[in-house]
UniProtKB/TrEMBL annotation:
Protein family (similarity comment): Belongs to the globin family. In the C-terminal section; belongs to the flavoprotein pyridine nucleotide cytochrome reductase family.
PANTHER family: FLAVOHEMOPROTEIN
Name of this protein: Hemin transporter
GO biological process, one term: cellular response to nitrosative stress
Domain of life: Bacteria
Pfam family, one: Globin
Keywords, alphabetical: Heme, Iron, Metal-binding, Oxygen transport, Transport
Length: 152
């Protein structure tokens, strides 16, 4: 769950973020792949990138996670995160890669939404991201342990 302050900010800004999420994720991937071409080369399906499928998946996951945290349905949250964690584990995603995603995702959010990203808005969406990321990291760690392999 989000902090009470973040809950109100997320509830108020979810429509704005949701309306811009396609532009945000397109810019995010461009920025991240420019800075880390090895991620595109080694981890991402180039066909899904070209067709925009990965962008849609990320946008949908973030929006769904935020929405479900506002109107908690733990079964739906667990299902969404389990699917993502299994995909990430199949690719060998590592915890440090979440910081890379965060850096480029938040730069894209600020660039697209501009002055709408006040310190309170940034803090609230930062909370969304890290709550989701930390949950996924924990789930992925468990999957790696079950498989007897290390991340990456």
């Amino acid at each position: 769950m989000f902090s009470p302050q973040s809950t109100e900010v997320i509830r108020a800004t979810l429509p704005v973020v949701g309306a811009a999420i396609g532009d945000i994720t397109t810019l995010f991937y461009r920025r991240m792949f420019d800075a880390h071409p090895e991620l595109e080369r080694d981890l991402f399906n180039r066909g899904n990138q070209k067709q925009g499928e990965q962008q849609k998946a990320l946008a949908g996951a973030i929006a769904a996670f935020a929405t479900l945290q506002l109107e908690p349905d733990s079964a739906k949250v667990d299902l969404i995160l389990s699917r993502i964690a299994h995909k990430h584990a199949s690719l060998g995603i590592t915890p440090d890669q979440y910081a890379i995603v965060h850096e480029h995702l938040f730069a894209a959010i600020v660039e697209i939404l501009g002055d709408a990203v006040t310190p309170d808005v940034a803090a609230a969406w930062d909370e969304v991201y890290w709550l989701m990321a930390e949950t996924l990291i924990t789930m992925e760690r468990g999957l790696y342990q079950l498989a007897g392999v290390d991340a990456g």
